[in-house]
Structures are given as C-alpha cells and as structure tokens.
Amino acid sequence: MHTLDQLNRGELKGVVRLQLSENLTRFPNAIFDLADSLEVLDLSNNNLSDLPEDLLRLKKLRILFCSNNQFTHLPDVLGQCETLEMIGFKSNQISTVSSESLPTQTRWLILTDNKITSLPDDFGRLTRVQKLALAGNRLRALPDSIMGCRHLELVRLSANQLEAFPDALLELPRLAWLAFSGNPFCAERDSHDEFKTVNFRDLELHQVLGQGASGVISVATWQKNPFGFSESVAVKVFKGEVTSDGYPEDELDACLAVGNHDNLVRPLAKVAEADCSALVMELIPAHYTNLGLPPSLVSCTRDTFPVEQVFPIEKIAKIVEQLERLVTHFCEKRVSHGDLYAHNTLISEDGHVLFGDFGAASKYTNLSLQQQQGIEQIERRALGFFVDDMLGLCTERDKSTAVYQSLRSKAFT
Ligand SMILES: Nc1ncnc2c1ncn2[C@@H]1O[C@H](COP(=O)(O)OP(=O)(O)OP(=O)(O)O)[C@@H](O)[C@H]1O
C-alpha cells in the first residue's frame, strides 16, 4: 500500500504497481506522473465516483481495480485505454455499463455486487474475455452476442434477476466454471429434512479453522447433543451477504442436495434460525493439505502450484479417478459445483481426496434436458482442465508412461 504523500512528493517515480486507499473522492492528478511505468492501479476502498477523461494517458495500464467505491456507471474512458485488460469494480453502485466503457482486449471483468440491469448488446465483441464476474446484480437477461466471447472460461451469474437460463452460454467452447444459483429461473431452495436441524445454542464454538467468502468455520463441541453426533465437529456460520459466488443460502442448499460421498467433507446437520444459518460438518483431519493454490493475476482462470510440487503418475491417476467419480455424483444429483479446482481439493499423504467449497454450486433439476446436458458438459470441461493441471505436476520420467498418455487424452487445454 502506498500513500498520497509519497505520490505527491514524487517518491513513487517508476513504480509499476500503485495501491492507494485514503478515502479519495477525486482521482489524484499526480498518478499521471507515473504514466511511463504504471501497469497496475488499485484504487479500491475509496470514495471515487468517476475517473478523468484523459485516463488513457496511462499508456501502460493493464490492470485497474476500483472495488468498494461510489461509481454509478463504468467510466467510458476505460474503453479507450489501449492496454487495459483486467477491470475490477466490485461493490460499487454501478447501474450502467456502456459499450464504450469496455475495451475490446478485456480478459477479466469483475462487476460483482452492483446494480447492473443489462449488458451492452455488442458484448460479444469482447472475444478475449476469459473471466466474467457478475454475481449480485440485477441482470434480467444476457445479450445473445455473448456467444462471441469464445474465450470465456469462468462466469458468475448468481444472485441476479435472470428469468431464464441463458442458453447462449452453452455455445461457449471453453466455459468450465459457471455459477447461476439465486435467480428467478432456479429451482426453489429445499428444506433438506433428510438432515437434522440443530439449535445454534446447543453448539459451543472454539477456535477458528478458516474463513471462506461466505462464512467462518470453527471447531465446535456440543452443549447438548440430542442426535449423538461426534463430540467435536466443524461449523460454518454463514455471513449472510452476497459473495462473488452468490448467496450463502444457496451454498448450503446445494451442499446438502449433493449429500454424502467418500470424497466430500461429510455434512452432518444444519442450523436454520431467523438470525443464523450454519452447516455442521465433520472435521477434516489435520493431515490433509491443499492440492493447489488459487489463480493469480497472470494465470487468470487457472490454478497455480508451488514450483516444487511433483507427483508420481500413479498418485495423479488416483486423484483424477476420485474427481471423476465425484463429478458423476454431482451430475446424478443435478448440482453443478461450478468451482472444480485443485485449490478446492484437499489430499492426504496416500492420495485420498476431500473436496469442498459449494459457494458457486447451482442446482439444475428444473431445467430442460438439453440445458442439463450442457451444464454437465461445462463441469466436465473443468474436470478436463483439472486433469491438465495435474499432469503439469507429473515427474519428467513418468511422461512416457501409458497412464500419462491415457490421462492426457482426458485433459482439456
Ligand atoms: N470441515 C472442516 N474441518 C476443518 N477445517 C475446515 C472445514 N471446513 C473448512 N475448513 C477450513 O476453513 C477454510 C475455509 O473453508 P471454506 O470451504 O469456507 O472456504 P474456501 O473454499 O477456502 O474459500 P472460498 O469460499 O472463499 O473460496 C478451509 O480452507 C479450511 O482450512
């Protein structure tokens, strides 16, 4: 994080990346002094509502983040910034997105949690866009031209006002991670009576285990355990607000709809109270570790891995086999996971997989057979990308094996 003082004193000359958060209400002019070098500008968490019309003077600007500001429209000047390819305006008040505001070379567009009712008709001219985050808006439909966005791989549409499933998405040849729960066309949430409902006051929360976008997970023991669950459990208490993947209530609904599987963290019970929604689940044993790391600004939609991460091909085959069985289970339950990634996968030393994070999951039982098949194909593409990622971790020696070749035929690149 930098300061306005540093900027005004000329101390930041030559920086490639600038991050300022000081309740700014106006774009600081001194930023233009960095035009020769500035590639990444992060003005998130300020009070900005517009950008200067000569922003294009920042000739090298590739990445612009303005989340948590007061924008009511996406500034038109963005469309004239010749090198700008990543745009993030999450949690503003944006209701209008003009065609002029979208640079043709956009790869990454984050407009989560705004008030957008429609996208420009010619959206499909963004033929390079790979990642499109629109959850928590007021979209009623998508422009059919979106079919032209042939590089789209990740799309978030949850928590909108879509009246019908956007069939145009089924035409996208690379789409692999899709979230669409919490729209009027979706099936209603289920009460999941097959799972016990417990009182929140019967649980005693202890140390925090982790925190996802949608809730906080803690170890808990029972004050009262009428159903005889294990003495120690994990409890995810949902925060209630919309996340970049959708509504927490839909996460709980989808997670319970998928139910039990050998490769899922076992859901045990739910808390469904007016002021508290929570999921009680089995504790993940401490020796399970993350298989991958989330995507970076460079990898965009693809997971990243520590350079030293290497696996023998037999272990990779075992991991892939478990994921394949899991995807078959998702399809049988008519739930799309929407976030099938190594970074959501935990593995034990001997290669047993525990998979999680239903934040982007969407139920699709009520859709037409053709739509259901299309959605399954999208999830299987994510599995194909996953296989490709796993093969990237294979030892050089194992690349000549028959197992490698057989897995290669399942990979999507
Ligand atoms: N049943 C559990 N037992 C032990 N630890 C858990 C359990 N569930 C979650 N955790 C811990 O909490 C962290 C957050 O989990 P969660 O599934 O909510 O979110 P995430 O997938 O990491 O994040 P996001 O939803 O933002 O993508 C996990 O990385 C893990 O460390």
UniProtKB/TrEMBL annotation:
<feature type="binding site">
    <location>
        <position position="236"/>
    </location>
    <ligand>
        <name>ATP</name>
    </ligand>
</feature>
<dbReference type="Pfam" id="PF12799">
    <property type="entry name" value="LRR_4"/>
</dbReference>
<dbReference type="InterPro" id="IPR011009">
    <property type="entry name" value="Kinase-like_dom_sf"/>
</dbReference>
<dbReference type="Pfam" id="PF07714">
    <property type="entry name" value="PK_Tyr_Ser-Thr"/>
</dbReference>
<keyword id="KW-0547">Nucleotide-binding</keyword>
<dbReference type="InterPro" id="IPR003591">
    <property type="entry name" value="Leu-rich_rpt_typical-subtyp"/>
</dbReference>
<keyword id="KW-0808">Transferase</keyword>
<keyword id="KW-0433">Leucine-rich repeat</keyword>
<dbReference type="Pfam" id="PF13855">
    <property type="entry name" value="LRR_8"/>
</dbReference>
<dbReference type="InterPro" id="IPR050216">
    <property type="entry name" value="LRR_domain-containing"/>
</dbReference>
<keyword id="KW-0067">ATP-binding</keyword>
<keyword id="KW-0677">Repeat</keyword>
<protein>
    <submittedName>
        <fullName>Protein kinase</fullName>
    </submittedName>
</protein>
<dbReference type="InterPro" id="IPR001611">
    <property type="entry name" value="Leu-rich_rpt"/>
</dbReference>
<dbReference type="InterPro" id="IPR032675">
    <property type="entry name" value="LRR_dom_sf"/>
</dbReference>
<dbReference type="InterPro" id="IPR000719">
    <property type="entry name" value="Prot_kinase_dom"/>
</dbReference>
<dbReference type="InterPro" id="IPR017441">
    <property type="entry name" value="Protein_kinase_ATP_BS"/>
</dbReference>
<dbReference type="GO" id="GO:0016301">
    <property type="term" value="F:kinase activity"/>
</dbReference>
<feature type="domain" description="Protein kinase">
    <location>
        <begin position="203"/>
        <end position="413"/>
    </location>
</feature>
<dbReference type="InterPro" id="IPR025875">
    <property type="entry name" value="Leu-rich_rpt_4"/>
</dbReference>
<dbReference type="InterPro" id="IPR001245">
    <property type="entry name" value="Ser-Thr/Tyr_kinase_cat_dom"/>
</dbReference>
<keyword id="KW-0418">Kinase</keyword>
